[in-house]
Amino acid sequence: MDLKRLHYFCTIAEQGSISKAAKLLNIAQPPLGKRLQELEEEIGSPLFTRTPRRMVLTEAGTFLYRQACDILSRVNQLKRQTITIATRKQRRVNIGISYLYLRYFNTILMDYYRNRPDWDINVIVSDSSHLEAMLLDNTVDIALMQVPGDRQPWFIRELEPIDTIAVISSHYSPMLAGKALQFSDLSGIPLILLHRIGGEGTYEVMRSKLFSSLDQVNITIKVSEPRLVLEMMEQGFDGAAFLPRSEFIPSAQGKYMVCPLAEPFAIYHPAIVTLSTAQDRLLWPQEHEVA
Where does the record place the HTH lysR-type domain (predicted)? Predict the structure, then answer.
């Protein structure tokens, strides 16, 4: 039962006779009648009742006609879509994503992938300071990153702020588990802080908060990527770290835990950024926008 025979069968059913169908299909009547006979032999049942005026579908023929029309319609749609994809010109779009929000921005990246089949998407992962430089020299078209400190020369769409959490190694969990954490609770404890490669960002804000809240600030390591912070704690670093909640991954070995902060400390502000001179409304997924 091939597609060509189904097409011939449907045309005969719609025209009501082999002669009319043959004329429409631009083929001779004998070969068309032969194809119908082969189809009826394959099914093992007549598909038409022959009357003096026209050929009428049997019950089996009616069922086959409805199903065949659906199949042929879907095949034609598939063909059209494939031709469209094969012949269209894709727009190359370079998207930069900050290390700080790799997990968070994966959702938006997938939105672009699903909703913009006309884009040839290329993803670059880097530090926010590098992403700003790449926007300026047009290496990337869009940056998914922390809100820039300087509003010029950017066009910025701010997204919902992400909660700050404290991640505590198992060594300190008996002392801190089950409580809302005050910054002062971390006095003297070794700390890993996120730090961008160039310029000022969340590190400077967090550092200022720590020095105003702790008797003894013990910043041991500065890291640019949240994933590395968690890997270091998984490998045995005893201390604490601050991360955006979106980037937390539970410890496979129970080496660290999350402690919520007693008071909100909003420093993580993700945004979609382009140059203001290259503003393009097509670039913005609407559902993630801050109201």
Answer: 1-58
